[in-house]
Design a protein that fits this description.
Blueprint lengths: L4 E7 L3 E8 L5 E7 L2 H9 L5 E6 L6 H8 L3 E5 L15 H14 L4 E2 L4 H33 L13 H9 L4 H32 L5 H7 L7 H11 L9 H6 L4 E6 L2 E7 L5 H11 L10 H6 L5 H23 L4 H21 L3
Parallel strand pairs: 1-4, 4-5
Antiparallel strand pairs: 1-2, 2-3, 5-6, 7-8
């Protein structure tokens, strides 16, 4: 389809700056719009069509893109980290940003990202809320444990903390009036966050079993280190696995591949690129730690694999063997364990892709 009008949008909560280019005459026009999605869609619909527009992903979300596509307008959401920028350009304004976007759109230099459905975005918010609660709970536990340590209250070595027995031990601790007030407050914070995490876990279990997600989630959780919430998180962040032509494209998409600085005869390897979803990358890195252990299918993993097609089980087993081989190879070379784990996470992403796109 031939584009008649190209449009760059600089979108904010209360305003949107638009720059449009008539591809036939080359005429450039600009408009200052409100932040209301309906007004922006009406503006795009009034331009000579077909219209192709874009804006950068940001805190305003994907509502505008969904509204425009529902109206039959081709509106792309662009990855800001991959938008070309002039290193010497120190002047920034909404108008210049919109002009820059439309020029790059016409040149084909922009990288669009997948726009999730409203249901997917809501499920992502539940996941990220749970992650924030988990981080808050970790900090609250640290604050409480340091208070106990400063006052000589040490949980016996060899026993697991934050269990029912540990909670009863906390209730038995007695301090002076001021310290007791602080201890009670910190314990209440830990209890509240623990309840919130449990409630969100139950909600995520229900979301994972929806027809839209369970076929893929059930495959992903057949891998060691990838339970239901991790599988759901990876599925929601990636969405359509079939858009990746090769397995290694998933690792590149999630920023798990090393960067490169090459000039002339000199080539320098850099740290991983860290593009794409930071949350999905973190989930994969955490799951990859299980790959350092020898391959085995324990009781828990066998239970998760019940009802999963045999080819998926074989892919899961091959993944375990591959990750353990990487661990042994990196250990023999005395390479940093964190670097080795990133390599395992990159391989794990490839095996998950193979399981997700498998067709009977």
């Amino acid at each position: 389809m031939v584009t008649m009008t190209a449009v760059g949008l600089d979108v904010h909560a209360r305003s949107t700056q638009a720059t449009s280019v008539d591809m036939v005459t080359g005429e450039v026009s600009r408009a200052r719009l409100s932040g209301d999605a309906d007004q922006v869609v009406a503006f795009l619909a009034g331009l000579p069509g077909p219209v192709r527009a874009c804006y950068e992903a940001g805190p305003t979300g994907f509502g505008l893109a969904r509204a425009a596509r529902a109206a039959g307008i081709d509106l792309e959401v662009i990855a800001p980290s991959k938008t070309p920028r002039k290193r010497g350009d120190r002047i920034k304004s909404d108008r210049r940003d919109a002009d820059h976007l439309v020029r790059q759109l016409i040149a084909g230099a922009l990288t669009p990202i997948r726009v999730p459905s409203a249901d997917e975005e809501a499920a992502r918010d539940v996941l990220r809320d749970r992650e924030q609660v988990r981080a808050d709970l970790l900090r609250a536990r640290h604050r409480l444990s340091k208070l106990l340590l400063r006052n000589g209250r040490i949980w016996p070595a060899g026993k697991s903390a934050w269990t029912g027995e540990h909670r009863e031990w906390l209730d038995r601790q007695r301090f002076t009036d001021d310290l007791q007030l602080v201890a009670n407050d910190l314990i209440a914070v830990v209890d509240g966050l623990t309840d919130r995490r449990a409630r969100l876990n139950r909600a995520l279990e229900q979301i994972a079993h929806r027809d839209a997600y369970w076929p893929r989630v059930s495959r992903l959780r057949a891998f060691r280190g990838v339970d239901t919430i991790t599988a759901l998180g990876i599925q929601l962040e990636i969405g359509d696995w079939t858009r990746f032509r090769r397995a290694k494209d998933v690792g590149a998409y999630l920023g798990l591949v090393p960067g490169l600085d090459q000039s002339g005869e000199t080539a320098t390897g850099l740290a991983i690129t860290k593009t794409g979803s930071r949350y999905a990358r973190w989930l994969l890195v955490e799951a990859a730690w299980h790959g350092m252990h020898p391959p085995r299918v324990g009781v828990v993993l066998r239970r998760r694999q019940d009802g999963v097609p045999e080819p998926i089980r074989q892919i899961s087993w091959a993944c375990q063997r591959r990750l353990h081989h990487i661990s042994q190879r990196f250990n023999a070379r005395r390479i940093n364990s964190n670097k080795a784990n990133v390599a395992r996470a990159r391989e794990l992403a490839c095996f998950l892709w193979a399981a997700a796109v498998w067709e009977p």
